[in-house]
């Protein structure tokens, strides 16, 4: 017994030092994790990312870092961590195959957050959907269609296609195509279209409207007309100018041709 006591004390001292080192790793690791987590939350907050996304990302980072800290503490005590790593790796691989689509949406959600092709409230066209962005999460993006339908789209479908953002730029060009009969006065038609655009308060004066004869079609001559306006006023200008041009054409006797068919009857 007397021979075992020195060995016991030696083992106790060595193991005690390891225990203290492991506790120190956990305490320091906790402090470092908190700092890293706060830094990431602060950076994401400055980028005006939704609180739900910030909270989810912070929790994920917190869990991953704690795994590393616990593994380091166990290793310090002398517990073999290779088997734990192998088990975690195998489990991660199995989960990855099972949730391949979900992980793809998760990765696409991260790309949406980092590159910001659109923000909440923007009017966009993506994945065959056109509407206003209502919410962005890690896995899906919710749109509110212009006829007030809620549409939820997986993020991977959005990132794998073309994204058209109608809100990013402050102004948009409004394109028109007006067709009139061949006997119409070209100069008069151009003056009418230009007059309507000049009088509309939402149409920009710079750059000035563009009106040119663009096509000699089968039954009409078509004028290509363009003007610029602030993005929120796009549809107001489009509908107003279209309606007012038609009214001015009627007042000035300028006809808009429509397809006609002559039917000839023969008596046998």
Radius of gyration: 34 Å
The amount of helix comes to 40-55%
SS strand fraction:
15-25%
Number of domains: 3
Annotation, overall tally of beta strands: 8
CA-CA gap between termini: 134 Å
Structural class: alpha+beta
CATH topology (level 3) name of the largest domain:
Helix Hairpins
Q: How would you sum up the major sheet?
A: 5 strands, antiparallel
SS summary, helix count: 7
* General form: elongated
Read across the widest sheet, the strand sequence of neighbours is: 4-3-2-1-5
CATH architect. name of the largest domain: Orthogonal Bundle
For the record, the CATH class of the largest domain is Mainly Alpha
Q: Low-confidence stretches at least 5 residues in length (pLDDT < 50)? A: none
State the order of secondary-structure elements, H for helix, E for strand. Answer: HHHHEEEEHEEHEEH
Query: What is the average per-residue confidence, as pLDDT, rounded to a whole number?
Result: 83
